[in-house]
Amino acid sequence: MGRSARRWRRVFIAAATLLGALAGAAMGDEKVTLAVPGIPPIFASVLPHVAATQGIFRKYGVDVEVRDFETGVIGARAVAAGQIDLSVSPTTALVGMISNAKVDLVAIYGALNSDWSIGSTDPDRAKCTDLRDQPVGVDAIGGARWLALREMIVPCGLSMDDVKPVALSSNVGAAMIAGQLTFGVLHLIDDVPPIEGQLHHKIAVITTLKQVNPVSHYLMLVARVDKVKERRGAYVRTLAALIDANNFMRDPHNADAVVKAAEITGHTDPEIRQALEAYNRLEMWASESDGLPRDKVEAVIAAEIKTGGIKPGVTPVTFDALVDRSLWVDAEKLVASKR
Fold first, then answer.
1. How far is residue 286's CA from residue 188's CA, in Å, rounded to a whole number?
2. Cis peptide bond N-terminal to 41, omega within 30
3. Interhelix angle for 91-101 vs 72-80, to 10°?
4. Is 116-212 a CATH 3.60.160.10 domain?
5. Is the peptide bond before 40 cis (omega within 30 degrees of 0)?
6. Dist CA 77 CA 87 (whole Å)
7. Is 2 a residue whose pLDDT tops 80?
């Protein structure tokens, strides 16, 4: 090889190395903050933690900080304020926030199915009407459990003025175990089994959100509209990692790794394994779609109008304004390219 050829070869290698370093730096700069609900986190919040602990976010070139917030409502407010990028938040709350306050948020992924229920530690007090004038454990006033309670008590003629919500973040189950509360809004997947294990008897399930509203929607991953335009690539990569992590969680061979990541919930190994099985049966986070079906989302909008979550005289948010499905399409293609 001649001197000139060797020189150009060195230049080419140096240029390639520089481009690779710049690409790596750019990928490393793709920092994203993602809020999940519950301190400690609820089981629906385990998905991003799995993506983080298994290096799946890094696989897609994003550096995601998963932050545990007391409620998904607080997370959504932080996104709206520009303090963080993304939040896992209850659909019901988002519909109300966007409709009433014209908050500029958009959903890019969804958890289809909720496992909300109202439980009682006293089998002799297991009717909806038994809730009248009674303390009921929720996460926060206006939080996801509070909103679910408001909807679940409508069929028996009660309103939130007829009950006494007690705000406990995700510690409702602990309060019921300690005998501080008889009634609480509970996750069937990860709240009920530990309570039953500690009390050594079954929780009486008064009602479930699915019974009250079979066509409902649970959670949305939301971002600010302007940030979606500004940081689309980073958000698509983050969403691709969540899709990949969801597939990871559905594979029984990965159960031990999921259990390890889910220890952050504070549950025991057997409780987590039971919750994981129930999570996959329920298909909480969508595995074959964006998890944002029009009928389910519009059912939430209708329910919020009916229950007063959307104020009288306010124009409700529409499905098309609330949902951006295009990021999931791009994210799914990215996941497929890495299989």
1. 18
2. no
3. 40
4. no
5. yes
6. 9
7. no
- pLDDT of the residue at 273: 94
Task: Read off the amino acid at residue 266.
Answer: G
Nearest CA among 94, 303, 328 for reference residue 216: 303
Question: Across the chain, what does the average pLDDT equal?
Answer: 91
Q: How much is the pLDDT for 170? A: 87
The class level of CATH for 9-113+217-337 reads alpha beta
Mean pLDDT of 51-63: 97
Give the pLDDT of residue 248.
Answer: 97
Side-chain-side CA neighbours of residue 41 (13 Å): 22
Of the candidates 184, 216, 222, the residue with the CA atom closest to the CA atom of residue 203: 184
Average pLDDT for 103-119:
95
CB atoms under 10 Å from CB of 28, counted, come to: 12
155-174 mean pLDDT: 95
Amino acid making up residue 44: A
Give this prediction's pTM. 0.85
Contact assessment for residue 85 and residue 231, using Cβ atoms and an 8 Å cutoff:
yes
Domain limits, the chain:
9-113+217-337, 116-212
What's the average model confidence in pLDDT over 304-332?
95
Residue from 294, 296, 300, 317 nearest 101 by CA? 317
Cβ count near 197 (within 10 Å): 14
- Cα–Cα distances in angstroms (integers) from residue 203 to residues 117, 132, 182, 275, in the given order: 11, 19, 10, 16
CA distance 137 to 175: 8
Q: Please, which pLDDT band fits residue 243 given cuts at 50, 70 and 90? A: very high
Q: Which two tokens stand for residue 152?
A: 């679940």
9-113+217-337 and 116-212 agree in CATH topology: yes
Q: Is 96 helix (H, G, I), strand (E, B) or coil?
A: helix
Burial class (CB in 10 A: 0-12, 13-18, 19+), 290: buried
